[in-house]
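Worked example

This section walks through a single chain of length 67. The input is the sequence exactly as stored; nothing has been trimmed or padded.
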Amino acid sequence: MNYEQFIEANVKAELLKLGFSSSIAAMATSEAIRYYRKQPASKRGKMLEDCLNQAKRWAKSAAKHKH
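Given that input, the structure is written out below as tokens.
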């Protein structure tokens, strides 16, 4: 498993655990991967946290506009 796959699996699992629908979780996970690809090196051990925060912001926004 490479790091992108690791981020994808963990971010999606966390979003589903937080109650987001699978479609929103999948789109937010894509945003997290896009964020990972654009960012320079993060503090050691913080990239997953940064990607998860980005995905949560995106998912909350998408869930708000969906209703």
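What to look for: The mean pLDDT is 89.
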